[in-house]
Amino acid sequence: MSQIRKKWLETVLKYKFNHDKPGSPTIWSPDLEKISRERIKEIQSEKLSVAFDYLYEESQYYQEKFKQAKLKPQDIQSVEDLHKVPVTTKQEWLVNQTDNPPWGNFSPLSHKRWTTDGWMMFTTSGTTTVLPRVFRHTQHDLKMWAWLGARALWAMGVRPGDVVINCADYGPAVAFWCLHYAMSLVGCPVIPCGGMNVQRRAFFINTYKPTVLLCTPSYALYLGRTMHDLEYPTENSSIRIIITAGEPGPGIPSTKNRIEGLWGAKLHDDFGCTEVAMTPLGYTCEDEVNSVENPVNVHLMEDAYIPEVLNPDTLEPVREGERGILVVSNLFSEAQPILRYMMGDWTSITREPCACGRTHARALGGLHGRPDDMIKIQGLAFFPSTIEDSVRKDPELGDEFRVELSKVGDMDRVKIIVEPKSAIPKSSYIDPREKIQEKLKGLLGVDVQVELVPYGTLPRTQFKSKRVFDMREQCY
Fold this sequence. Notes:
Blueprint: H1 3-14, H2 30-33, H3 37-58, H4 60-68, H5 90-99, H6 111-117, E1 118-123, E2 134-138, H7 139-156, E3 164-166, H8 174-186, E4 190-192, H9 198-208, E5 212-215, H10 217-229, E6 241-244, H11 253-263, E7 266-273, E8 277-283, H12 286-290, E9 298-300, E10 305-310, E11 324-330, E12 341-347, E13 349-350, E14 362-363, E15 375-377, E16 380-382, H13 384-393, E17 397-408, E18 411-420, H14 433-444, E19 449-452, E20 468-470
Parallel strand pairs: 3-4, 3-5, 5-6, 6-7, 17-20, 18-19
Antiparallel strand pairs: 1-2, 7-8, 8-9, 9-14, 10-11, 11-12, 13-14, 15-16, 17-18
Helix pairs in contact: 1-3, 3-4, 7-8, 9-10, 10-11, 11-13, 13-14
């Protein structure tokens, strides 16, 4: 083992407090989660300095990148120096992995260590290239994922005695693997439902009485409606906590209200990304989700990451509370201690302490979407979550919708396809199209056409739902 790798692992483990059990009834690691802002910066600075040197010595890609920026070992000593490190983008890694198949050469993980200390391979969920972006992780990473995930679960109110049903397919996606191992550390058994259809999962919930449900927000609605169809009423189910990942959910008020109302359970958020934030970067606490007057804000695990919110054009920091794009540095991984990776999600943060006692920064309303998710119509820009919030506020409408963008002459056209709520008989149903069209016109500033289709027409999905289809290029 090289000296710098040894120093990196020792530095990470130095701050792994309460590694196997919680330190308080409400906060897993109080000596990390309740510390002063100054102490957070000190821990970040110590980890950042060693991470930079580790990447410089053991990652061919970052050694070249740092040299081009005229940076040498030990040039980065604190968070005040972080701005000197160039931002890394997804596009750069795509090129690097194509040129150096199959892994690329940005990870400091050698082939020998992968085949002797390796744990698992993961891939991104996107389809931007024939060669998927792949990421290998080690036994060290596994233990860190479980510990960081356990801290998030403890904040959500998960406790020994809970039984978890995991409705992910257990493919090579990071989110639900992290939570699976975290549940084991907390002391909760897991019912893995990969490969089952929705009816089978509904049967398992009704029969085996799990108390925690892991899935996407879209799937929580689909599964809940299926439970009702099978005469397993969700309001009487055993589920008390729903943890979602993969899509915005708890940060969209109407979606949060629908899911919580359907299940009679509290809805929590867990987010990160495959490239740099494999275990929770963001998570909700009980105080946040119990608030009905304010937006749900999401804790950022600052001893494990350095989150920055930057202006997308200048890559300069925005002021606290202002919206920008998220750039993240990883401060714990052996395989992917990546510095300044552009996650690209729009968000804003506050560093005001939370009512729960945690002092780490919080993302206001969670993540709002990425620039490539943003819809631009007649010069106006908005996120699909704006439409989602409006549609799901209407109690007469179902959970699913589809947005189609097209051109009529030189004008953009927006069509939103929606379903009625299944419980409303057709004989007494009031067509809501005009009401929705006027509401969305006020929100978006453009005319909207609404098409009502029979309940069950639109597809239901298990993981990330695709609801926006831009066909304007096909119109030329």
